[in-house]
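Input chain follows. Return structure tokens only.
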Amino acid sequence: MRNRRPKKPKKQNALQKARLSNRPNLSVGQKVLAIFVELFVVLSVVSLFVALAVNIGPKNSRNSMMSAKPLPMRTTVGGSIVVDYQTGQVLMSHNEHKLVHNGSTSKLITAYLVQKAIKEGKITWDQKVTPPQIVITAGLGSNLANIPLLNEQYSVATLYSYMLNLSANSAAATLGNLVAGNQAKFVTLANKTLKSFGIPEKEYKIYNSTGLSTENMLTLAPKGLKKKDENQLSAKALATITYRLVKDYPQSIERFDSNDITTPDGNLHVTTINNINRVYNLNGYANIEAIAPKTGTSQKGGISLTGLFRNKSTGREFIATTLNGAAWNFDPGPVWTLTKNFVIDADLAGHTFTFYPGQQIDGAKSIDLMNTVQTSTKLYVKDKVNIWVRSSNPKTVPSVDVGNFNTKITQMDSNDILMARVNNVSEAEKLYGISQDITVPLYSKQTLTENWNPFAKFWRLLIH
């Protein structure tokens, strides 16, 4: 057999020799670490490309933008507005920022301040009050004593009922003095309250607690005013006041529906007077019920109406306000009919999406978490939400964005709520003092606990 010659090793060029001479002699641990570093870099790059693909990819047509700009009303009244009571979202409006003499609807400001004083423990419903002397002596012929009061003590609850259900100026003046001290101080308190509601100062002028002109307030009127000065509000301002009264003090609703009321008559005899709210509620579409209404009459501003209205078929509730709906010497009934028609129009106009507790919503069925032990959690609607838009189609639904919560959640109980903003509804308008964002309250059924592992947080930072 022929002996095979051993193969000669391949010659190495100078570059290869240099590389070999510079290669460190790695230990096993260093080699393992190097492998992990290389894997980390590769995965980081892959994660980056995945994130970019998700964020710049084609948008879902279901998330197309929808307009929630309030629809105009076809009317000639001084000012009007219809609002979804559940959200405070304005659905329809007309001259809603115009100042109009609003008469006795001003008494809702007095009603709010009475409720606030009771809540703060300053007065009680059973507290006895003696009317100011001018209220007692003014007589039935005066506007101040349209419902006369005797020289005796009345409970706050009785005066409140007279004020809301009989529009008693005597009761409103007495209660205004009770909560503030006198009418001048009442004006200061009322202005401060309306400012706290977020109502612009150019949309209200308050001179007393009744809605009467200065001359009809007699000696109770603050000094330095003109005889013809009367309270003025915009439709949006009055709707905001109505909303705040029934929203902040829901127990006040039942006081708009008192039984027929016993009171002194013009000859100081006791008589029973029909609750005018019940009488006028018979006007208009029977399926629309006024459950917390207040009318007002002014020679300058005509007849006005504001209140909480309910569609008895659907249960949906609205704040509706009509200013100067008819001349002051007309029957208020047609203004009630007109306002109920406004409610019907708003209920039928546009499209309302309703989300119910426990439901999931596009864009927020779950949330990826960075700072908790859990990497993600499912989210559910906490409370019923109405989202109204001008028009819609089956391929478009409201979608919310929870991405801004990813880095903020460190710990969360199942009772905690995330207010997620709807990101495909624009031009929405709400009453004063309410966030203009359209939001949905979401919650997790899990209790989420904070993760203190810095490596886990860093990794989630990269993939988010």
